[in-house]
C-alpha cells in the first residue's frame, strides 16, 4: 500500500513539474518536484543524516537540467526511434544516479543499482505514446503538453519514486 501511495504522489508531482499546473516559472515547477523528492528520502531514511534530504533535492534539480530536447517523442519527429529511446533511457539512468548518490553515501553503494531503473524513462514515454488520446488534443490551446507526453510524465514520476523508495529500503 505504501508503494502505491509513493508512486501516485511521485506521478502527481512529476506531472505538475511537467506543466499540469500553470506555475508560470520553470524553476518553480522543478522545485515542486525536487523538494518533495528530498523530503521523501529524508522520511524513508530514518536515522539518516540531516543533509540527505536537501542533497537529494539538489541532485534531483541538477538531474532536471539534463535536457532531453525533443527526444520524448521517441522518433516521431526525426524518424530515429531507437536512438531517441536509448537517449531517454540514458537520461533516466543519469537522473536516478544523481538522485541516488546521496542515498548511497548513507546506505551504501547498493542503492545505486536502482538507477538502472532509469531505462524505464524511455518505456514510460513509449507507453504514453501508445495510450489512446483525443483526436483534437493538438488543437486545444489550454493543454500545456501533448497528452502522450503528459502520460509519460505521470508514469515516469511514479517509477522514479518507486526506484527511490526501493533504494532507501
Structure commentary:
This protein is an all-alpha fold. It is about 65% helix and about 0% strand. The chain has one domain (about 1-169). The protein has helices spanning about 1-15, 25-45, 50-65, 80-105, 120-130, 145-169. Helix 4 (about 80-105) packs across helix 5. The model has no long low-confidence stretch (mean pLDDT about 85).
Structural descriptors:
6 helices; single chain; 0% strand; 169 residues; mainly alpha
Average pLDDT works out at 86
Rg measurement, Å: 16 Å
Instruction: Tell me the β content.
Output: under 5%
Report the helical percentage.
55-70%
Number of strands: 0
Order of helices and strands: HHHHHH
What structural class do you assign from the helix and strand content? mainly alpha
Number of helices: 6
In short:
By secondary structure, the protein is an all-alpha fold.
Question: Secondary-structure map with pairings?
Answer:
Elements: H1 2-17, H2 26-44, H3 52-64, H4 81-107, H5 120-130, H6 147-168
Helix pairs in contact: 1-2, 1-6, 2-3, 2-6, 3-4, 4-5, 4-6, 5-6
